[in-house]
Amino acid sequence: MESPELEVAEQAARAGGAIVARYFREGIAMRNKDVANLVSDADIEAERAIVEVIRGHFPGHEVLAEETHPGDASAADLWVVDPLDGTNNFAHRIPHFAVSIAYCRCGRPECGVIYNPVRDDWCRVVRGQGAFFGADQARVGQHTRLDEVLVGVGFYYDRGAMMEATLAAIGDLKRRSIHGIRRFGTASLDLCMVGLGMFGAYFEYELSPWDFAAGALFVEEAGGRVTSARGGPLPLERTSLLASNGTLHQPVLEIVRTHHPGGAEPIG
């Protein structure tokens, strides 16, 4: 794959990932954002290092990052950064988390990386050039029936109506005889699992751009489909999300749209 932005994304991910891995080995100081939503010194320090690399190469570009950089999402050149996706896993010593970085041009992701620094796993993607896990090209699964697949799911931090809506959708999916539900707690990696054919689909009712910007492009370049959980185009803003291998998109959409918080009305 060839892309100057991808090269910078990799450099930035290595810089941030080194910090995250060090904190994971040596211990962390956690501070609550709110219930079940944690922020750590690792998040803050890794984001600082990532942004320093990006701005060293592209000083005029905007940065939208989870912790301290509320960049302009409408900017022509925008980097969307999650320095530590899966903070709750990280806090509980579960080595399933990632640094996620996407470069967007005029609101559309063009390339990105999702990097687990403790496992040294790399997912890379460039629009029009494919998606790769390490050196291997990623392809979505070829399953055509719900009773052939696992479905991934994420829960937003809301413990009320959104949680109940998610559980209701899970119930309907289980009644369609899917092989099972998996909830791993790191949206960027969940999306990669769709792109790698491990999940037939993945949905969540609320995500932020830094959670999905790189991963959504990974799914698409692996041959899959990504929309909101109501079936509309995926905006570069807080939204619901459904990713699939493409073939299973409509049957999963019928379920997750029915239970979408706020109702199943189409996007207008």
Structural notes for this entry:
The protein is α+β, with helices and mostly antiparallel strands and 268 residues long. The chain has 2 domains: 4-137, 2-Layer Sandwich (Fructose-1,6-Bisphosphatase, Chain A, domain 1); 146-258, D-Maltodextrin-Binding Protein, domain 2 (3-Layer(aba) Sandwich). 34% of the residues lie in helices and 28% in strands. It is built from 7 helices and 15 strands. The strands form 3 sheets. An 8-stranded mixed sheet has the order 4-3-5-6-7-8-9-10, sandwiched between helices. It has a 5-stranded mixed sheet with strand order 12-11-13-15-14, with helices on both faces. It has a two-stranded antiparallel sheet with strand order 1-2.
List keywords for this structure.
268 residues, 7 helices, D-Maltodextrin-Binding Protein, domain 2, single chain, disordered C terminus, alpha+beta, Fructose-1,6-Bisphosphatase, Chain A, domain 1, 8-stranded mixed beta sheet
What's a concise summary of this model?
The protein has helices at residues 4-26, 41-57, 87-91, 161-175, 187-195, 209-221, 249-258, and strands at 30-34, 37-40, 62-65, 69-70, 77-85, 98-105, 108-116, 121-126, 130-133, 136-137, 150-153, 180-182, 201-207, 225-227, 239-244. It is of the alpha+beta class. A hairpin with a 2-residue loop joins β6 (98-105) and β7.
